[in-house]
Amino acid sequence: MAENTPHLENLLTQAVSGGDRSKVFSRFGKRPSYSFKERFIRYILRSFSWLTISVTLLIIIILFWDAIELFRQYSIFDFLTGTKWEPFGESKKLGILPLVSGTLMIAIGASAISIPLGFGTAVYLTQFANKQMDRIMTPIIEVLSGIPTVVFGYFALFAVTPFLQIFFKNMELFNATSASIVVGISCIPLVSSISAEALRAVPISIKSAAYAVGMNNFNVVTKVIVPSAISGIIASFILAFARAVGETMAVTLAAGASPNIEWNYFIGIQTMTAFIVQISLGDTPAGSLEYYTIYAVGLMLFLITFIFNMIATLIIKKFREVYK
Fold first, then answer.
1. C-alpha distances in Å from residue 246, one per residue of 62, 152, 206, 241, 308
2. Most buried of the four, 36, 163, 207, 216, by CB within 10 Å?
């Protein structure tokens, strides 16, 4: 049996790479199986894939279609470059920069919280903690991901902000700092879990080789393990940033609804998601200019997250380590 193993591996490799599969799977022949069960399963799985793609394309088409209606009534140049966001006044000003500014403030502030805490937690649990500590701490950290974001919003409003106001008297009730803190806390499990998986995926042989040449534990982690897992770690950072960009309820409750472009973390701001919630809950008539701002802002939010995902993909490809 052991003598036939290399031959079998060779046949499997040829079959997967497009060779004659009948030598390995005699019932297949040169064409895919015509068994009813296999065809049924294949068609079901294929329909799921097409359904997912169709829904995604439908959402994108609706966003573009209704956003174009806004730009037929309002200059797209003023929309992209304006610094005033006043969609409800008689003289409407629809410059989206204040909403983009607020969204980036929350995303950057939340990343400053979630990335160091999440990454540090992942390194500790995978490289320094014993198994018992890992079994205790990992479920506790993952509980954070199950807390509804609306709870984080109220936590920011009634706990974080009053505590911060003890030290910062000029901090408003609705402010970007509290929103950034709670969004950052909610993103910690995402950074921690993905980074931990990337660190655990580094082959033990690399770690053993580092110890064999006399490196201490700290140097093995910082100069061998972490660089080897850098693609997965960077992916976790960018995914956390993208989640903070798309966060809705926590920032709606904690950051307020005052679109401004001042980059002051002590005062209220408004993000793109918070504006969509605000206008969706109002009495905005369908077909009005205010109604189409929902789709225009949603389209801008989609484009921003899409760009960050593309950047993440490029970075992962550049730093990806392939182990054999």
1. 19, 15, 38, 9, 12
2. 207
Question: Alpha carbon 44 to chain centroid distance?
Answer: 29
Please calculate the CA angle 274-100-291 and round it to the nearest 5 degrees.
Answer: 50
CA distance 251 to 248: 6
Note whether 109 and 180 are within 8 A (CB).
Answer: yes
Does the CA dihedral 143-146-150-151 come out positive or negative?
negative
Which residues are CB-contacts of 309 (< 8 A; sequence separation ≥ 6)? Answer: 238, 242
d(CA 275, CA 62): 19
User: Please, are residues 240 and 190 in contact by the beta-carbon 8 Å criterion?
Assistant: yes
- Amino acid of residue 300: M
What is the phi-psi region of residue 75: left when phi exceeds 0, alpha when psi lies from -120 to 50, beta otherwise?
A: beta
d(CA 8, CA 11): 5
239-283, pLDDT tens digit by residue?
Answer: 889 888 888 888 888 888 888 888 889 998 989 988 888 887 767
Sign of the dihedral defined by the CA atoms of residues 62, 63, 64, 70, in that order? positive
Return the structure tokens found at 76.
Answer: 């797209």
Virtual CA dihedral for 61, 67, 72, 77, nearest 10 degrees? Answer: -120
State both tokens at 218. Answer: 């700290």
pTM listed for this prediction: 0.79
CA angle 195, 196, 202 (to 5 degrees): 95
Q: Which of 102, 79, 85 is nearest to 247 (CA)?
A: 102
What is the tens place of the pLDDT at every residue in 75-94? 889 889 888 888 887 788 88
